[in-house]
Design brief:
It contains three helices and six strands, in the order αββαββββα.
Length: 141
């Protein structure tokens, strides 16, 4: 075993802790908070970041407003039903999506990547997770 690498169990625990930190950080980003209970931005600045910036007179030529819009960090997804941010690199894909009202959100963090033609798998995964989130929300209200 190489010095400093640790056992498989230690490496797995470290990886799990790091993934948990990324997801918690992403969650705080969705809430515009740096740490639970501590606001980074004044409410007006956070609202401006969430405000959709494109208008009929101010948008890229390839954007159809009923399908997509964007804020300073967010864009609309699934024909405006959700707002969020996501991305991918080889072997990883993430997506943070919320209702525009901000009352429910889902963060998907996968350690795999698929060909563009298989992108529907991510949409189905999100759909299943969203339905589960709605059930969880309804049982806590």
């Amino acid at each position: 075993m190489a010095t400093g690498v640790g056992t498989l169990a230690q490496r797995s625990a470290n990886a799990a802790r790091e993934i948990k930190e990324v997801i918690e950080s992403s969650s705080r980003c969705l809430q515009m908070d740096s740490t639970p209970g501590t606001r980074i931005l004044p409410p007006a600045a956070a609202a401006e970041m969430r405000r959709l910036q494109y208008t009929v007179d101010n948008k890229p030529d390839n954007v159809e407003l009923d399908e997509k819009n964007a804020g300073l960090f967010w864009s609309t997804k699934f024909n405006g039903r959700f707002v969020g941010h996501g991305g991918s690199d080889p072997c990883v894909r993430t997506e943070m999506l919320a209702r525009p009202a901000g009352d429910l959100a889902v963060i998907v963090f996968t350690n795999t990547s698929l060909a563009e033609a298989q992108g529907g798998v991510y949409a189905e995964l999100f759909k299943d997770l969203w339905q589960h989130a709605q059930v969880l929300q309804s049982t806590t209200e």
